Amino acid sequence: MRKKQFEVTDLDQILQILDRCDVCRIALNEGDYPYIVPMNFGYSCQDGQIALYFHSANLGKKIEMLRKNGKVGFELDTSHRVVFADNPCDFAMEFESIIGTGEIRFLENEEKPFAFTCLMKQYDKEKEYTHFDPKMVEITAVMKLTVKELYCKRIKK
């Protein structure tokens, strides 16, 4: 990161930023251009290793691409605020962002409930969800992104 004063390296702070995010963009690669998909997500952190979880229908371009190549880039951001100034060149943007790379694998049915619990926790922090309709579990594609590299940035004026 070029401007080290904006870098966030403390794991607890990174997890707090993840808690505030509501969309994760996944960059897939096939051919000459990346394909970027916004996804609902959940995460876990075990022994300092962050994993992101996603769900989807079992069919479609994204699924086909991931089955061919699970190496992805990802991006999340939150806490956006424009900082106004008299001079347009002095405007600024406050934000927190996380970018990185990792590998996605599709989870088996017995692994899916943990991922669903992480997904639900991201959007409803008040309630713990532990039961999921077995039919829905079976027909839903659930993916785990194991983070290989992660960079976190916070700009606050």
> What CATH architecture do you see?
Roll
SSE order, as H and E?
A: EHEEEEHEEHHE
* Annotated CATH topology: Pnp Oxidase, Chain A
Structural class: alpha+beta
Please give the number of β-strands: 8
Largest sheet: 8 strands, antiparallel
Describe the structure.
With 157 residues, the protein is an alpha+beta fold. The chain has one domain (4-155): Roll (Pnp Oxidase, Chain A). It is 23% helix and 46% strand. The chain is built from four helices and eight strands. Strand 2 and strand 3 (33-39) form a beta hairpin. The mean pLDDT is 94.
In short:
With about 160 residues, the chain is of the alpha+beta class. The chain has a single domain, classed as Electron Transport, Fmn-binding Protein, Chain A (Pnp Oxidase, Chain A). It is built from four helices and eight strands, in the order E-H-E-E-E-E-H-E-E-H-H-E.
Question: Keywords, please?
Answer:
alpha+beta, 157 residues, Pnp Oxidase, Chain A, 8 strands, 4 helices, globular, eight-stranded antiparallel sheet, single chain
Topology:
Blueprint: E1 7-8, H1 11-20, E2 24-30, E3 33-39, E4 42-46, E5 49-56, H2 61-68, E6 71-83, E7 92-106, H3 112-123, H4 134-139, E8 141-155
